[in-house]
Design goal:
The complex is a heterodimer of chains A (115) and B (118).
Chain A: E1 5-7, E2 10-13, E3 19-24, E4 31-38, E5 42-50, E6 53-57, E7 64-68, E8 74-78, E9 87-94, E10 105-106, E11 110-114
Parallel strand pairs in A: 2-11
Antiparallel strand pairs in A: 1-3, 3-8, 4-5, 4-9, 5-6, 7-8, 9-10, 9-11
Chain B: E1 3-5, E2 10-14, E3 19-21, E4 24-26, E5 32-39, E6 46-52, E7 60-61, E8 64-69, E9 74-79, E10 88-96, E11 107-108, E12 112-117
The chains are: A mainly beta (115), B mainly beta (118).
């Protein structure tokens, strides 16, 4: 158990819908990262938050948005869902913003299926 | 841009033997970190080992060691005394550590599926 929690574990929804994925980082970690894992794209970085502020952005679609709250938990919002958004979404956390030896620990993931 | 290449889609090893999973990387950064993660069939991503670009010694964590060859830009994972529970997908990943627009994010390879035979 990494100490990072993600809910829900599984999510099945229809095209055009909107969903929210939730992540609680390990105690003491200030950074939260979101990654998407799909068969065709592999593991891709979406976005990073550090202590409530957006720190880095990757290949995140405009239909997707995220935020980190004062208690440091984070939510990833996916809207106007398409079949291609079906994937395993990981949240990871680390103590710092990415310095030397700042290890990212991953949550169990949320498997999103868009029908 | 950073790039990670894992050229072995699948590897097989006999229980109790050692196995090496290959990883090569490409970066123009001077300061970077290399990571290996394990993903069992259950799906979670488990951190195994870290190597910093300025570390002079190869990293070791229990049965895992990282064969770091900076000039060749390779960071191979060695698993000694393989166990059945080592069967999983293994990912090599890289992160810039000196600041800049890609600071913090991990760039992953495509992964290697390891199967341990009894």
């Amino acid at each position: 158990d990494s100490g990072v929690t993600q809910t829900p574990k599984h999510l099945i929804t229809a095209t055009g819908q909107r969903v929210t994925l939730r992540c609680s980082p390990r105690s003491g970690d200030l950074s939260v990262y979101w990654y998407q894992q799909s068969l065709d794209q592999g593991l891709q970085f979406l976005i990073q938050y550090y202590n409530g502020e957006e720190r880095a952005k990757g290949n995140i679609l405009e239909r997707f948005s995220a935020q980190q709250f004062p208690d440091l938990h984070s939510e990833l919002n996916l809207s106007s869902l398409e079949l291609g958004d079906s994937a395993l979404y990981f949240c990871a956390s680390s103590v710092e913003a990415g310095g030397v030896a700042d290890t990212q620990y991953f949550g169990p993931g949320t498997r999103l299926t868009v029908l | 841009a950073q790039k990670i290449t894992q050229t072995q889609p699948g590897m097989f090893v006999q229980e109790k033997e050692a196995v090496t999973l290959d990883c090569t990387y490409d970066t123009s950064d001077q300061s970077y970190g290399l990571f290996w993660y394990k993903q069992p069939s259950s799906g979670e991503m488990i951190f195994l080992i870290y190597q910093g670009s300025y570390d002079e010694q190869n990293a070791t964590e229990g049965r895992y060691s990282l064969n770091f060859q900076k000039a060749r830009k390779s960071a191979n994972l060695v698993i000694s005394a393989s166990q059945l529970g080592d069967s999983a997908m293994y990912f090599c990943a890289m992160r810039e550590e000196a600041g800049g627009t890609s600071y913090g994010k991990l760039t992953f390879g495509q992964g290697t599926i390891l199967t341990v035979h009894p």
